[in-house]
């Protein structure tokens, strides 16, 4: 009888421990997915911001930034 109650207690503690680890794992997984999504969004914003910009070397003192346009984006004044 005493051994059965001790076994129940051990199994109950083991169940609580597994449940605790599962919850910790799920929160960690959610955090990792959120960080990955934020990194992808940041990379996408950076790509949009730099889209069309090309750097050409200047006269050795730095770089000149030029923006390349498509054929229908030119505006002649």
Outline of the structure:
The protein is an alpha+beta fold and 77 residues long. It is built from 1 helix and 2 strands, in the order H-E-E. It has a domain at 19-46.
Shape from CA axes? rod-shaped
User: How far is the first residue's CA from the last residue's CA?
Assistant: 97 Å
User: Taking Cα atoms only, what radius of gyration do you get, to the nearest Å?
Assistant: 30 Å
Mean pLDDT: 80
Structural class by helix and strand composition: alpha+beta
The largest β sheet comes out as:
2 strands, antiparallel
- Count of beta strands: 2
User: Which consecutive residue ranges, at least 5 long each, have pLDDT under 50?
Assistant: none
Biggest β-sheet: strands ordered side by side in the sheet:
1-2
Considering DSSP H and I runs of 4 or more, what fraction of the residues is helical? 55-70%
Helix count, DSSP H or I runs of 4 or more residues: 1
N to C succession of SSEs: HEE
Proportion of β residues?
5-15%
Describe this structure as you would to a colleague.
The protein is 64% helix and 13% strand. By secondary structure, it is of the alpha+beta class. The chain has a domain at 19-46. Strands 1-2 form a two-stranded antiparallel sheet. The N and C termini lie far apart (97 Å). The model has no long low-confidence stretch (mean pLDDT 80).
Question: What key attributes describe this structure?
Answer:
single chain, 77 residues, alpha+beta, 1 helix, rod-shaped
């Amino acid at each position: 009888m005493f051994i059965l109650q001790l076994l129940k207690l051990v199994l109950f503690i083991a169940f609580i421990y597994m449940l605790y680890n599962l919850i910790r794992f799920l929160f960690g997984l959610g955090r990792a997915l959120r960080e990955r999504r934020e990194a992808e969004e940041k990379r996408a914003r950076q790509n949009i911001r730099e889209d069309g910009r090309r750097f050409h070397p200047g006269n050795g003192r730095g770089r000149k930034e030029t923006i390349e346009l498509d054929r229908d984006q030119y505006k002649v004044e």
